[in-house]
Amino acid sequence: MRRLYRHADWTIIQDPNVCAEYSAECSEKGCEAEFSITDDQQTADSWMYDHTARTGHRRFWQTFGNAVVVGPPPGSIVAALAADRASAVVHPCKPSQPSRERARTTP
């Protein structure tokens, strides 16, 4: 019995079918203000600036998350085939309104 092993290079890329998420939480004692938005870092940053202006709070915990896919490295034949398939898919991410459920602010 013969076996053939092939070495394959892989890379991690952002999943083009899933939106990234940005969130911020005020870290000041007693403040539970937090904010989350899909695919719009500038809006998350603006929320922190506004919260600082309103409260004087300057410490935050900022989180960024995105889905990833393990795939072939850019420039490989398999990557070219995957790119052709991905270009046919409509990208679901676009700037949206902040999540109202998670957004809590304090005076």
End-to-end separation: 73 Å
- Shape descriptor: elongated
Question: What class would the helix/strand composition place it in?
Answer: alpha+beta
The number of E-state strands comes to 5
Order of helices and strands: EEEHEEH
Count of helix runs: 2
Q: Mean of residue pLDDT?
A: 79
Query: What is the gyration radius calculated from CA atoms?
Result: 20 Å
Write a concise synopsis of the structure shown.
The chain is of the alpha+beta class and 107 residues long. It contains two helices and five strands, in the order βββαββα.
Task: Characterize the structure shown.
The structure is a single chain. With 107 residues, the chain is an alpha+beta fold. The protein is built from 2 helices and 5 strands. The chain has helices at residues 41-55, 77-87; strands spanning 11-14, 21-26, 34-38, 60-65, 68-71. It has a 3-stranded antiparallel β-sheet, covered by helices on one side. A hairpin with a 7-residue loop joins strand 2 and strand 3 (34-38). The protein is elongated, with a radius of gyration of 20 Å. The model has no long low-confidence stretch (mean pLDDT 79).
